[in-house]
Amino acid sequence: MTENETIFWNRILELAQSQLKQTTYEFFVLDARLIKVENNVATIYLDPMKELFWEKNLKDVILTAGFEIFNAQIAVDYQFEDDLEMMPGTQEGSQAFSSQNINPLPLVKSDLNPKYSFENFIQGDENRWAVAASIAVANTPGTTYNPLFIWGGPGLGKTHLLNAIGNSVLLDNPNARVKYITAENFINEFVIHIRLDTMDELKEKFRNLDLLLIDDIQSLAKKTLLGTQEEFFNTFNALHNNNKQIVLTSDRTPDHLNDLEQRLVTRFKWGLTVNITPPDFETRVAILTNKIQEYSFTFPQDTIEYLAGQFDSNVRDLEGALKDISLVANFKQIDRITVDIAAEAIRARKQDTPKMTIIPIEEIQTQVGKFYGVTVKEIKATKRTQDIVLARQVAMFLAREMTDNSLPKIGKEFGGRDHSTVLHAYNKIKNMIVEDESLRIEIETIKNKIK
């Protein structure tokens, strides 16, 4: 299709979705395709059973889009499967509705990192659904979850999964047109092509992909880059309309991309949105056990568990700790990493973390109790009424945030609870404050009282 035809068709879809219920839109509209617009007549492929619906409900939509894009009244000629078989240059399937490729498409550089695969991604409860969805997308791109939107904090494996999807698709089909790119680099490419007046090259590069993998899409959410958002919007539509797979990652949910155009946010929610949270203790142990295979040192189990207890926010901290240990071990010419050696190696990294070691856990429990109207004794006990459970979990969260005490130490201060209980409370509150602005304000208020 020409650029105007693509814009015209995207406008029809946008207007139709705004006027119809989602289920109605998906059934009657999504499988339709624009073949061409010629002599003010739009030729649209359609299931013959759906023609009456289009005539009754979408005639005004087509007229509106026609005047907006072509400044003319656009009539409609519906074509059905039998008709398409007789049309020159068409064939069954989605290829029948793509623009005619007179020249072969240029090669596309995937920019994938070959070291990332599903096989070397450590799965835990915190990423189980993201992994399952990613594998499903890699197995049947463009048909299962499109787009797939993966969100979570930094260093939790989003980039690993993006690359694993791409590498898996290329393994199955080496001729697939796959592109991995960060949103920041997409912006940079857009600016360069605007400056060089070569936007057609950018469109050809991105709108003819089989799989587009965009990392850190939140970088696109800037009010000063509306031109970039417009181009990405058109790219998204071009790919989605042709059943090409799109996968995006972000540090927040689509609804929290505040500076992104609403029409983009809506499209990001068309498919599946999955969350990755920080790895639990057992997953961190598994990650470390896997990572130490890259080193020539021996790590006893107690050292691995010690390191897993020191860093619980993301995988990058664990990887950085191993590099610190490697440096110290090489300098001292030792090959067995004891807990003491590990503690010495990561001391500087631990000191860099913004935690206040002088705050007693009891002070945190006291201030949290006062705020929520419960006693420290109740926080430490086993009673599980809603107000006490919330206070207890907030206190554990703040103890982890504001002190450098280990998880077992914090658990001991809360009635002898296991480290996994503390970690569960920490992760739960951390995820809740992303969605619950009131809770975030409550915790900030308590923090100020403690400080």
Automatic annotation (TrEMBL):
Gene Ontology cellular component annotations, sorted alphabetically: cytoplasm; plasma membrane
Location of the region described as Domain I, interacts with DnaA modulators in the Swiss-Prot/TrEMBL record: 1-86
List the keywords (alphabetical). ATP-binding, Cytoplasm, DNA replication, DNA-binding, Lipid-binding, Nucleotide-binding
The family database entries (SMART domains) matched by this protein are listed as: AAA (SM00382), Bac_DnaA_C (SM00760)
Q: At which positions is ATP bound? A: 155, 157-159
Supply the SUPFAM superfamilies for this chain.
P-loop containing nucleoside triphosphate hydrolases, TrpR-like
> Does Cytoplasm appear among the keywords?
yes
Q: Name one GO biological process term.
A: DNA replication initiation
Q: What does this protein do?
A: Plays an essential role in the initiation and regulation of chromosomal replication. ATP-DnaA binds to the origin of replication (oriC) to initiate formation of the DNA replication initiation complex once per cell cycle. Binds the DnaA box (a 9 base pair repeat at the origin) and separates the double-stranded (ds)DNA. Forms a right-handed helical filament on oriC DNA; dsDNA binds to the exterior of the filament while single-stranded (ss)DNA is stabiized in the filament's interior.
User: Which NCBIfam families does this entry report, sorted A to Z?
Assistant: DnaA
Spell out the protein name for this chain.
Chromosomal replication initiator protein DnaA
Please give the organism. Answer: Streptococcus pseudoporcinus LQ 940-04
